[in-house]
Amino acid sequence: MAQSNWFNQNKNRSFPFIKGTVGVRIPESGPVTMNQLPHDFIADAGFITGVESYFDVEEHTIYLYRVSRAGDTVLFEFRSDAPVLYDYPMVFTRDIDDAEYSVEHVEVSVEGSQSSESDSGEDYCEEPLWSGYLVTGEMESIAARLADGEEIVRETGDAEVEPALIQNIHATILAAIDLANADRTRATASDGCDDPIWSYPTGVIYPGEKCVQGDVKIKPGYNTKLLQDDLANSITILAKKGQGAGEPCEEVPVFEGETPPEGASNDLLAGGLLCNEVVRSINGVGGPLFQITAGLGVSVVAEPENNKVIVDVNMIGLAVCLFDLSQVSESLSE
Prior knowledge:
The protein is rod-shaped and about 125 Å long. The protein is built from 4 helices and 17 strands. The relative contact order is 0.12. Among the domains are: 4-168, no CATH class; 279-334, no CATH class. It is mostly beta strands. The strands form 6 sheets. It has a 5-stranded mixed sheet with strand order 6-5-7-1-9, with no helix packed on it. A 4-stranded antiparallel sheet has the order 4-3-2-8. Strands 10-11 form a two-stranded antiparallel sheet.
C-alpha cells in the first residue's frame, strides 16, 4: 500500500475512481453529490472478488454507492452490479476524529455477515464473497461536507472504482473441500411385496467432513483408482475393481450408524440378497427376467414361498423303446 507522501501528491486526482465519475465541478463548500465527490474523501481503495462471486471483469463494476453520517460515525458503502454481490454491500466505518489516511480491511461472507481487522479474529470456514480495503482522507473535511443525518447517494455512472484496483479470483482456485457420500443403491421389493423400510432418510446426500483446507492428501479407497494430470491441473477418480484399497471384506457404511432395513433376512445394508442367493444367468443367458417352459418329459414346478424353481426330467409323455440286448447282439454277429 502507498505511503502518505504518495497520497499527498495525488490529492487532486480522481483515483481510486474512474476519471469523470467523481470530482466534477466541486463546489467550494457545502453539500456535494456523488459525481461532485471531492478527491480528499477517499485516498485509496482496493477489492478482491472471491471464488464464488461470479464477478466478470468484462461486464461488472464496483462503485461507491453511499456515504452517510450518524453522529460522529461516517459510513462508506460500496456495491457491485455483479448479481451475486449486489445484495452483499461492503461497508467501511470511520469516526470524524480518525486520523488522515486511516486504513480498514473488510470481508463479506456468503451469509452477508461482515468482518474487519478489528474483529476477534475467529476463523470462518468459507472464503469471503469479496474483500477490500479503504484509505480515507481528512475526516474534518468530510464532516464539513456531510452534516449529521445526511447522506450522499450514487446515481448511475458515478463513483466507479478503477478496474486495475479489482483483483478477480472467481473460479480460479480451490478454496476448500467438502466430503460427502451419495446414498447407496437400495433394494426394492418384487411386485406385490412391501418395500424394505429404513429407519433414516434414503436417497439423500450424507455429509462427512466440511471445509477441509490447507494441504490435502487424497488416497484411493476400495475399488478406486486415482489419475493425476499435472499439465491439466486435475485429479480423476475412477472406479476400478480391486484397485486402491482393494475389495472390502464386508459392506462399507455410507454414514456412521447405518443399519439394515427392518426385517432384513441377511443384514445387508442395501436390503438385497447375497450374490449366491440370486440367479444371474442360466447357461450363459442373463436376466433380469427368465422364462422357463416345460417340454416333453420335463416338468417345471415353482415354489414362490421358497424362491425356488424345480426342473424335473421325469420322462412323462415320452415313448420308451425296450430291446432285448441278446437279440441285438445276434443280429449284429450275422
